[in-house]
Amino acid sequence: MAHYKAEDSKREQFRRYLEKAGVLDALTKVLVALYEEPEKPNSALDFLKHHLGALAPENPEIEALRLEVAEMKEKYEAVLEENKTLKAKLAQYEPPEEEMPGE
């Protein structure tokens, strides 16, 4: 009987841990969304993965990386434009290829 109480206590601690972490609420919301879907998806597991991922709180590191990627894209576009401009300026000063000596 004491063994049963110890397992029950561990289960209750684990349940409280899940509740405190918000896991039970997140699972409940996703399962309710799946239940309320008019057309059930072919893969319930994929549905759960997709919707649980959407419920996950945003990691600050991920947001910082997204901002960095956006900045890098802007810099890349600016460098491409500058490269295009410089090539056009250079083309003004280079003789046409058919006039090059030695060919």
TrEMBL record:
Stretches assigned to coiled coil: 62-89
GO CC annotations, alphabetized: nucleus
Top-rank taxon, per record: Eukaryota
UniProt cross-references to Gene3D superfamilies, sorted A to Z: 6.10.250.1060
InterPro entries: AMY1
Keywords for this protein: Coiled coil, Nucleus
Classification via CDD domains: ZIP_MycBP-like
Compartments where located: Nucleus
Gene Ontology terms for molecular function: transcription coactivator activity
UniProt main location, coarse: nucleus
Family classification: Belongs to the AMY1 family.
Name of protein: c-Myc-binding protein
Native source organism of the sequence: Amazona collaria (yellow-billed parrot)
